[in-house]
User: What shape does this take?
Amino acid sequence: MNVEHERSHAVRAMLKDEKLLRPEIAAQLEQPWRTNGVIVQAIFFVLTCIGLGAFYGFLSLLRVGYPGVITAVVAIVLAEYLIGAWRWYRTGVEAALWIGGLLAAISELPRSGTPESILVIAAAFAIAGARARQPLFGAAAVLCIVYYCEDRFDLGVVAALLLSALALLALLRTWKRPSNEWLLIAIALTLPFAGISHADREWRTTTITLYTIYAALAFALAVTRRHHAFFLAGMIGAGIAATELAQLLDLAPEAPLFIAGALLLGIAFAVSRALRDRTRGFVLTPAKLTPFDDELELAATLAMKPETPVEAAPKTGGGSFGGAGASGDY
Amino acid sequence: MLSFEPELERLRPLLPVPTTDALIARERREVFSVQPEVRICAWAGAMLLAMAVGIVLKNNLERIGPLALAAMIGAAAIACYAFVWTRRARPSIVDDYILLLGALLVSADVAFIETQFHLFGDHWYRHFALLAILHGVTAYLYNSRTLLTLAVVAMCSWMGVQQAPFPSMNDVVETSLRLLACLALVLMWRFANRREEFHPVLEHFAFNLLVLTPFALTFDEGLRTAGCLLTLIAAGAVIYLGFRLRRESNVLYGFVYGVIAFDVLLIDLVDSDLFSLFLVVVSMIGAIAALFAIHARFQEQSA
Assistant: This one.
């Protein structure tokens, strides 16, 4: 998909969200590719991965030589056929075929056990990401590099934050391809989590300092350059730094939650009051980060609602009681 | 940073002038909405405070005493509801999350009171019904879909259906009957409901319960074939209703349930690993083709 088609696709999606996409406008933004929305892509991706996995298993049970290589050849040829002849792009199928095929091929390689082996997987994600223009594959490739830095040099946190900060700075450039921008956003938002999973307890003060600097950089960019990714990166950095700080301080377990909760609600309240009637600059008009913000929020609320694990009623052996009244075991 | 200003300028003759100007101002970041960030902050704040209250209830029972703890949490919940009620003439985005905090506090408090004072005795699970009523009434008072969701989930818990589906499958028939009872209650609620914006939430629950009721039977070896066939029929009904309601999410999860039931049925009927894998490959190709056709038809219908 060339730059023009990619941009037309993104503008169509934007106007569709705004309920402005009429046939005459759609005709102006014509692009010859068959694409799907995020949820449909995810379903196709999973179905294709299951199919490909079953094909690999089928060849293995048949005791055919090099089942991984055969799976890879079939998957990649099919993916290229779908892209070239059927003009499939971001359907979920071609991305699954590419990454599934490459990972199947890698499964045939001899296992060396060296830290460098992860770079082969990084290369697979990078190649599949570049071909299918799938930002999450690109981010997965960078995650593999962070894992390698941790394994080889014990510098996982530094590598994660450095690459993440570079992604933030790269976002300052005006990108023509939306997929390049989404790749940088995916890197900036996922790598801080990868970094903290490698943080050692004895380096906790350094970790807090690094994440605070990262959050400060992100917030400074957010205020001056106005991009949701900068705000989200700042929130992630600050959240991780605060979590680490809470573990460093010897407080009652509920204290950090109370402080952070009250602080966040207070900030939200203050910002909403300050921006209430504004029509220029920072405003509070309805906006969405994804087409399914509300659904994500509901799902997260149900998944994370606190439990009240207190003892059950006598005699009955009752069960545990749930926070929103939703988790009674019988 | 992306900017679609050139494309919007090109489309200017086809779009209303104020709309084009507003979109271009957004692309230039002259107008930048921080509403998503404020929502995330407020949601995280409410969830953290509710979690903190959960820990307080767990760790301070002996120090503070059950009555004082229950009263404190109850008072905090009432304060949240009252705060939002007083601001309903000019609500802000944060009010939704203060309301959510109030609902989570009520849930924690009711559960805590029941475990400490055993008000319902052997029928302890009835506190879920109380919560369902409380959340249901407040959902209508405050016009909140989040509270409605909590009410439906509490109602399902009252019926003995856990949020995480099928953690233990001791009696699948009983599980299926419990799901059926939930489905009946949700359907009654849906038909009694007169508030248009609550229809999608109730329908979402009803459709999921409609498919999960027969799907529970597939966990029993003796009932697997019947469970799969009934799931396929239910999935077909959900897809049909999804088309009728023009809601693609219903069509999609109806389809996914259908594919799972179909594959479980095939694998169960075929007693060979090799042939099973072959059938999975074929069924996935068929599923992808069918989903493409369904998706395309849905797009045509929506256009």
Remarks:
- Confidence is low (pLDDT under 50) at residues 309-313, 315-330 of chain A.
- The two ends of chain A are 54 Å apart (CA to CA).
- Chain A has 13 helices and one strand.
